[in-house]
Amino acid sequence: MTINYRHNNFLHQYISYIISLVADTKSKQVKRSKTSERNYTQRSIIFLLFFLCLILLFTSCRDSSKYDFKTSSDAISAYRDFHHDVHSASDVNAEQLANYICQWQELSDTVYRFIKKDPSFTAHNTLAMEFGLTTDSIRYELISRSANCSMKDVAYVKINTSHYRNDTIFDLARTKAMTFFASLDRQPVNDKNSTRNLLLSYRRFLMNTKVHGINDLKQLKEFIQTEDRHFRTFLNQIDQCSEIGVEDITRITEDVCSEIYRSVSDRGLTSEDVMVYMSMRTNRRLLLNAKVCHGLFKKGEVKSASQANAYLWMMIQPYLSIDSFAVAMLTESQREMMMAIADDYPEIVSALAAKGFNDASISLQIPTQLMRLYISTI
Asked: Helix, strand, or coil here: 117?
């Protein structure tokens, strides 16, 4: 049986909730007569246990699957069989590769959880070694099958293999955040000042935020909103800004973001809000940047090899830097944007090579390296 541990965590939390609810129910009924209190509590417990049974039934129906290990030997054998299946595969496309990775994630988790309960797992290292060696072998086979992939393949695989792709725990926060981020597009950019003044205003804003900090969700949203306007203004004048240099803005931004993550434990920011809003902020920034560079390439407005390399690096950043959780926070339009930009990558590389701005043979190998890097970190 496949073990859905994320759902089990929820189940344990719900059981704890039931226990606390029953205890709370008892405390609130002190003023009732003993007979009525006993009847009320019994009815409450019966109802809650009935509801718990429904959840257990739902979990059983949901989790019943192809894995039904009797012994640790069965589990390791199934893991080796999967390795053999991957090893035997040839001419794997992006969809098949993504499917193999998803199967691997599920099987690896299930096998490990199963054999870890075996007393011999800690008494001897044989089981752990067999699991580790098979894991490495599977990873090697998947990496081997990622040769000559395209940037579109990278986008497809990352989008469809996120560890968080089926999680619903962040759905409410994500829905609220999506409404907030959609509103940012309605903010006008400030294109009336000179480039130097724009960068000066950007630095001043970041320094002020660094000094005063961010203490709650309202302030976090205000920071993202103002920063987004500065960032889009910067993108509108990316050529001029690149000539002046923005290293200090990058450094201060990193300091502010680090402080936001540190604020989770001792201020009014929840880890859920920070994870969702900061991931969606990063997604937006990376994709807006990539979109601008993609547009400059398509218009043929790149003027030098150094500029071409800088813009090409910025254009491929989403395929490198967006992690598993952030992928799950992408909107549908952002996923489509990733696929569309990736689809134009070979054409852009060829056009740059024709101008002598880059070596197409090297640039066209970047997607393969990105795919291999991604698989090596799973």
From this structure: coil
